[in-house]
């Protein structure tokens, strides 16, 4: 670390009016399904096109939902939070912690690790193929 201090994410209140398709977003997380390592919070995983959240424009994928209609979401299971959303009424007040710009909420390191492993696998396969072609070529040369 270089000693720089990261600004804490902004906490905002967002009022949504439930539409025909609900509030128009999906969530992940909870004490039983941690989405972020060492954080049992509830996160927005998808904003549905033309849903209430998309039309409002303030809620974004990766935002952390802290409360629904004043009810804190700490230490709740995923199912309990889904039930809170279902029974929240037509006008829903969300307290949301905005994600930091350039910060991805979710399991850390999963994608880059997978990419580097894939690259090493391809490199090993190409090297193996080159070795095999060399061995076949050398055997062919010895026979003639």
TrEMBL record:
Major localisation: mitochondrion
Key word Hydrolase present: no
Localization: Mitochondrion outer membrane
Source lineage: Eukaryota, Metazoa, Chordata, Craniata, Vertebrata
UniProt-listed PROSITE patterns: PDZ
Keywords: Membrane, Mitochondrion, Mitochondrion outer membrane, Transmembrane, Transmembrane helix
Domain of life: Eukaryota
Listed GO MF terms: protein kinase binding
Record GO cellular component, one term: basolateral plasma membrane
Transmembrane parts of this sequence: 117-138
Quaternary state and interactors: Binds (via the PDZ domain) to isoform 2A of SYNJ2 (via the unique motif in the C-terminus). Interacts (via C-terminus) with RALBP1. Interacts (via PDZ domain) with ACVR2A (via C-terminus) and ACVR2B (via C-terminus). Forms a ternary complex with ACVR2A and RALBP1. Interacts with MAPK12. Interacts with DLL1; enhances DLL1 protein stability, and promotes notch signaling in endothelial cells.
Biological processes per GO annotation: cell-cell adhesion; establishment or maintenance of epithelial cell apical/basal polarity; receptor clustering; receptor localization to synapse
Alphabetized Pfam families for the sequence: PDZ
Protein name per UniProt: Synaptojanin-2-binding protein
Gene: SYNJ2BP
Stretches assigned to the PDZ domain: 13-100
């Amino acid at each position: 670390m270089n000693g720089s201090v990261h600004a804490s994410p902004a906490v905002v209140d967002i009022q949504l009016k439930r539409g025909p398709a609900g509030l128009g977003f999906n969530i992940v997380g909870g004490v039983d399904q941690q989405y972020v390592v060492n954080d049992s919070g509830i996160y927005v995983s998808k904003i549905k096109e033309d849903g209430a959240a998309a039309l409002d424009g303030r809620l974004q994928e990766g935002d952390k939902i802290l409360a629904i209609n004043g009810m804190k979401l700490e230490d709740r299971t995923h199912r309990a939070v889904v039930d809170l959303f279902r029974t929240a009424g037509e006008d829903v007040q969300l307290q949301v912690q905005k994600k930091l710009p350039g910060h991805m909420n979710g399991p850390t390191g999963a994608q880059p690790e997978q990419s580097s492993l894939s690259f090493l696998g391809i490199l090993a396969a190409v090297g193996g193929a080159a070795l095999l072609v060399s061995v076949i070529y050398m055997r062919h040369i010895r026979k003639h």
